[in-house]
Amino acid sequence: MAELMAEKKQARTAMTTGDMVVWIPGFVDLQVNGYRGVDFSSQSLTEASFATACHGLFAAGTFAFLPTVITSSMATYRHVLPLIARAMRRPEFQGRVLGIHLEGPFISKERGAVGCHNPEHAQLPSIEMLETLCSLAENNIKVLTMAAELDGAEKVIAKASSSGIVVALGHQLAGADMIAKAEAAGAVLLTHLGNGIPNMASRLLGERKKEWLGSAGFPSRFATSGSSPLTDVLCSVASTPQP
After folding, report:
1. Residue 211 has pLDDT above 80, yes or no
2. Of 102, 108, 110, nearest in space to 153 by CA
């Protein structure tokens, strides 16, 4: 019993897989844009401030995470991506700073979908641009969030997926057919579902569920007949009981 209690103190988060419980020593966060005043998408970012943010996250219970860079200017990308890649080589960050989550720049410029991202820096999906960003990041981009409806999205999703990058859909106004094509091309995740879409004030209000599902890019019919992994996730969210 004493040994079990000691394990529980060290392992703050458990992940259940089938009948097996795997204990890990903290949270794993796929999207962290910064911490306590340190912005990972700012040209004022330094290796020292990045390290301070990392150690702060670790102390707060995060075991590992993906520093996330939002839609930015090329000048910002040229500054922050190599900087984060260099910092990742530090011994104390091995196995803890797992890679970079690139949230943009291939997202919708439209109000509501663009969220807090600067629409001036949003752009159409481009394999050339993706390769440039990957090069700047020393091939440490592990997650790419992008909009499914943009011209060229399927080609970039396929390229990213084949390069070992997990593609997530977000900040978009895609319809069901576009999302299905993106999923077929390799998209497997949804980034902060319910955010980065229009009509934000009524995201999960029961009476307006169908309206919300439509603005998310998923027809309301998916609430009962969807069968793909992405739509299954949406069904779970949409059927959550109201408080």
Report:
1. no
2. 108
Cα-trace Rg, the chain = 19
Q: What does DSSP assign to residue 175?
A: -
Q: For residue range 28-51, list pLDDT tens digits in order.
A: 999 999 999 999 999 999 999 999
Q: Are 145 and 101 in contact (CB under 8 A)?
A: yes
Question: SS3 of 30, please?
Answer: strand
> Any idea how long the chain is?
243
Max Cα separation, the chain? 59
Using DSSP bridges, classify how beta strands 62-70 and 100-103 pair: parallel, antiparallel or unpaired: parallel
Our CA dihedral for 212, 226, 170, 140, rounded to 10 degrees, sits at 160
pLDDT tens digits for range 162-182 = 999 999 999 998 888 898 899
Question: Pairing state of beta strands 34-35 and 13-17?
Answer: unpaired
Give the Å distances, CA to CA, from 39 to 46, 68, 178.
Answer: 10, 9, 32
What is the C-alpha separation between 119 and 139, in angstroms, rounded? 26
Contact between residue 167 and residue 187 where contact means Cβ atoms under 8 Å apart: yes
82 closest CA partner among 138, 12, 151: 138
User: Which residues on adjacent β-strands are paired with residue 145?
Assistant: 103, 168
| pTM for the model | 0.78
State whether residue 38 is helix, strand or coil: strand
Paired with 27 in beta bridges are 62
Q: What angle do CA 224, 227, 231 make, to 5 degrees?
A: 80
